[in-house]
Specification:
The complex is a heterodimer of chains A (291) and B (311). Chain A has 291 residues and is mainly α. Chain A has one domain. Chain A contains 11 helices and 2 strands, in the order H-H-H-H-H-H-H-E-E-H-H-H-H. In chain A, a hairpin with a 4-residue loop joins strand 1 and strand 2. The radius of gyration of chain A is 21 Å and the shape is elongated. Chain A starts with a helix and ends in a 5-residue tail after the last helix. Chain B is of the alpha/beta class and 311 residues long. Chain B has 3 domains: 145 residues, Rossmann fold, CATH 3.40.50; 70 residues; 68 residues, 2-Layer Sandwich (Alpha-Beta Plaits), CATH 3.30.70. Chain B is built from 12 helices and 13 strands. Chain B has a 6-stranded mixed β-sheet, sandwiched between helices. A 4-stranded antiparallel β-sheet of chain B has the order 2-1-4-5, covered by helices on one side. The longest helix of chain B has 16 residues. Classes of the chains: A mainly alpha (291), B alpha/beta (311). At the A-B interface, helix 1 and helix 6 of A face helix 2, strand 6 and helix 3 of B.
Chain lengths: 291, 311
């Protein structure tokens, strides 16, 4: 199993297409950083214009933490496509290249094969997120420095002390890893039904788009299914940046406003991963390899 | 000695289509087993079932005396295969492909062994070139190299000469003979190039529409001293009945509507001719044939073969 996993990772990183995702992410983050470096103050003033009459904000608002938050908000919508690009190709790509039949005549079980490929997809997903963390968080801290983090919610603003931010990013990235692993599991599941990678990639993105629309439309008809759609829970990482306040309306260090939402979302996403992977194993074990 | 492959009543259905229908055969150790049939006869489906790519609907497969269902890993450890096209990773070199598939076969191989294997299939000089630059023949040879890298006892080659030029076909033929004679491997090879099978096979199985038509040693089936004679008369049905009652009854082979087939010694053909005249049978044609191709065309059904036979 470990050997199979190593081989799958080796194959992923020997293909040029793998590096497209890393290049795209680098380009996007650098563009955002350049933009905020040159016009960051104006941008901050614009998003806080509603509050300028009620509170007075001082200090380095456009700091590394703030920039990372902006980047994550923009990027985590697009990362699923980059993940689907690889996970959607894991089985269908082998089928298309004709290597699937050769692989499956080797002495390992189909379950081992599926798990090795899935964990290789997850490894790629995690590396992509680590890369995002390095560029969006650490490089932004180097360029913009650190200070208290100030973010706008729909109906209120949140201020988080400088020393209380970093662990929230660790949590947010871990949560994003779970959300992106769900996307990888979906693309991987769809990958077994196709003989080229375009189908699973397009299908994965279509599912995400449709589910996101259902997740965000506040129509009563969708209210019952909305809590069970994985897309509803993909943005729950933002809960890490919502802080409990005391009676004086001051942030309480080390807290999040709704920890139960994080736990519930994590459980639902984990459930989706288990279902997608379980069904993939179940179907693939019985599949006749005709390609 | 137990057979290397023992297939019993193997059936595969895809919906309403029966691709393989109650097929049984055995492959003995050291055989070069020729697997013949028209396109769609069920050869590839059978081979895929032997390699666990397709689940049989019914029947039993044993390899090396072990049940394929319960001993899949042990069996596949001892088998190497090229199935239809030799598809490998085009973005890797021949050397990297070979190394990767050796690992997948739980085999630790030295660099020297990898190069030796590439040399055996004539690719040592192109070892570090990406496979996407290879010709079809080179890919085919690399596929065979991959099938052999873990030193299997059984090698399964499904249409190994597909897409090859005459030199490539000859190379593959020589390689199969080398594997059988020098390396004492058992080889199951399917091909539509019957002349190739005729040159290398020790035993032959002919299937049609998923059913076994003939199985036997190549010597038995293609005895050069025996000649297949295709005969067409004005009334084949009546002629057939007369032949059955005569001394020629034992020479009768599987019959087709368009002609009667007998297997005779060449020197007996004038005697047959004389007998036909004596019995007032109006003969339209009497054609002696003795190649595997003729035999194949005789025992398999299909319009093109009837036409080919009657040309």
């Amino acid at each position: 199993m470990w050997k199979l996993f190593q081989i799958e990772v080796y194959k992923i990183f020997r293909r040029p297409r793998t590096y497209i995702a890393f290049a795209a992410i680098t380009a996007l983050i650098v563009i955002v950083q350049l933009g905020l470096k040159s016009d960051g103050k104006e941008y901050a003033e614009f998003i806080m214009s509603d509050l300028k009459n009620s509170i007075d904000v001082e200090g380095n608002i456009v700091n590394g933490y703030f920039v990372c938050y902006v980047v994550l908000q923009l990027l985590l919508i697009h990362v699923p496509l980059l993940i689907a690009l690889i996970a959607g190709d894991m089985i269908s790509g082998e089928s298309n290249a004709g290597t699937l039949r050769l692989l499956l005549t080797k002495p390992f079980s189909r379950t081992q094969f599926i798990f090795a490929k899935f964990f290789a997809s997850v490894f790629y997903t995690l590396l992509l997120l680590v890369w995002i963390a390095i560029l969006a968080l650490f490089v932004s801290i180097l360029i913009f420095g650190t200070d208290d983090m100030f973010i706008m919610k729909t109906q209120y603003a949140v201020q988080i002390e400088n020393g209380d931010v970093f662990w929230r990013y660790v949590g947010a990235f871990c949560f994003a890893a779970l959300a992106m692993t769900t996307v990888a599991a979906l693309a991987f599941f769809l990958s077994q039904f196709a003989e080229n990678s375009i189908g699973p990639i397009v299908a994965t993105m279509s599912v995400i788009i449709v589910f996101t629309i259902l997740s965000t439309m506040s129509l009563p008809i969708f209210a019952k299914i909305r809590p069970w759609l994985f897309t509803t829970h993909m943005v729950t990482w933002k809960e890490f940046f919502d802080v409990k306040v005391n009676d004086a309306n001051e942030s309480i260090r080390g807290t999040v406003q709704h920890p139960e939402r994080l736990i519930r979302s994590a459980l639902i996403l984990t459930g989706h991963i288990i279902i997608f992977l379980g069904v993939t194993v179940g179907v693939f074990k019985r599949k006749d390899i005709l390609s | 000695m137990q057979p290397i492959i023992k297939v019993n009543s193997l059936t595969k259905k895809f919906g309403n289509l029966t691709a393989v229908n109650g097929l049984s055969f055995t492959v003995e150790q050291g055989d070069v087993y020729g697997f013949l049939g028209q396109n769609g006869a069920g050869k590839s489906t059978t081979i895929r079932m032997l390699l666990t790519l397709i689940e049989p609907t019914e029947g039993n497969i044993e390899l090396f005396g072990l049940n394929l269902k319960t001993h899949r890993k042990e069996i596949l450890q001892q088998a190497g295969a090229v199935i239809e096209k030799p598809d490998v990773y085009k973005y890797l070199s021949a050397y990297d492909n070979l190394k990767l598939f050796a690992k997948l076969s739980n085999t630790v191989v030295s660099n020297a062994r990898l190069m030796e294997q590439l040399d055996m299939v004539g690719l040592a000089e192109r070892a570090h070139d990406k496979v996407k630059t290879f010709s079809q023949g080179m890919k085919q040879r690399l596929g065979i190299g991959i099938a052999l890298i873990h030193n299997p006892q059984l090698i399964v080659l499904d249409e190994p000469t597909n897409g090859l030029d005459p030199q490539g076909i000859a190379d593959i033929r020589n390689l199969i003979l080398h594997l059988s004679r020098e390396m004492k491997k058992t080889v199951l090879v399917s091909s539509h190039l019957l002349s190739e099978i005729e040159q290398i096979a020790t035993r032959v199985l002919i299937i049609d529409k998923g059913r076994k038509l003939v199985e036997g040693s190549a010597v038995e089936l293609f005895d050069p001293s025996q000649t297949l004679v295709a005969m067409d008369t004005t009334d084949n049905h009546s002629t057939l009945e007369q032949l059955k009652q005569s001394q020629w009854g034992s020479a009768l082979q599987q019959q087709r509507d368009t002609h009667i087939v007998l297997k005779l010694k060449r020197e007996d053909i004038p005697e047959l001719h004389k007998w036909l005249v004596q019995n007032n049978i109006a003969v339209i044609s009497l054609q002696p044939r003795h190649s595997l191709e003729d035999y194949f065309l005789q025992v398999t059904s299909g319009k093109q073969h009837v036409e080919a036979f009657s040309n």
